[in-house]
Amino acid sequence: MPATPRPPLVHPDASSLSLVAVLHALADPTRLTIVRTLRADPERACGTFPVSVAPSTLSHHFRVLREAGVIRQRDEGNRRWTTLRLADLDARFPGLIDAVLATPPDE
Amino acid sequence: MPATPRPPLVHPDASSLSLVAVLHALADPTRLTIVRTLRADPERACGTFPVSVAPSTLSHHFRVLREAGVIRQRDEGNRRWTTLRLADLDARFPGLIDAVLATPPDE
DNA sequence: CCTTACCTTCGACGACCATCGAAAGAGCCG
DNA sequence: CGGCTCTTTCGATGGTCGTCGAAGGTAAGG
């Protein structure tokens, strides 16, 4: 039995993003840390984020962000690379992600 | 026993608003309708919002918005008037509330 | 004083959420 | 093949959320 390849990641279209879903995805401290980290470093592997939660919990947060359209992920070998969908977000909700990212942490 | 007057409403300072709390307050369809209605009409009584939930549920949503610093409420006679804290929000999170309000409903 | 209007609080209920550990899949390398 | 790394899925758990109805309290007016 041949090994099945990784199932392709699903990402919502840029034009179909839901405001409530995006706001909900951003309304969590851990996910906000992920988004802020991604702004500084455009592409990171999953295991390299400065968050203190279990790997399975981190995977859950990536799924929430991905299904809301906040991040895009692609597989390369053993790693899953993550990027911010900055242009898509700004086209759909102009100024929103900039306003969120302009606020420093711990405030 | 004399009747006790209405307890004063508590509102967080403009400088102490939490980004996560504001995003969470906005990440709900009913509360988003309240905020959008308030943009068109600067001051409304609680019972005059075009939402289809029970009065007790509406009261709950007002509390979430008020404690996050999104709205301000004042009592006058029997009615409770609600306003958007637009200036406070824009001073604390520049562009955020504008970006949210720029997105039309049902999108 | 009694009634009506307005809004809130309380208690309850079902749904969802953030979190974890255990297990497993896919890829890479010796 | 065998082991190691990276990441996900599954099941469970404790907590929070949105919702409602019932009850209550304040205000205004007959």
> What value does the average pLDDT of chain A take?
94
Terminal-residue CA separation of chain A: 54 Å
In terms of DSSP E residues, the strand content of chain A is 5-15%
The helix/strand class of chain A is alpha+beta
Helix content of chain A: 40-55%
Annotation field: number of helices of chain A: 5
Rg over alpha carbons of chain A: 14 Å
Which regions of chain A have little confidence, pLDDT < 50, spanning 5+ residues? none
Oligomer category = homodimer
Helix and strand run of chain A: HHEHEEHH
Main β sheet profile of chain A: 3 strands, antiparallel
Q: Can you count the beta strands of chain A?
A: 3
Shape call of chain A: globular
Considering residues with a beta carbon less than 8 A from a beta carbon on another chain, report the largest interface and each chain's count. Answer: A-B, 20 and 20 residues
Strand order of the biggest β-sheet of chain A: 1-3-2
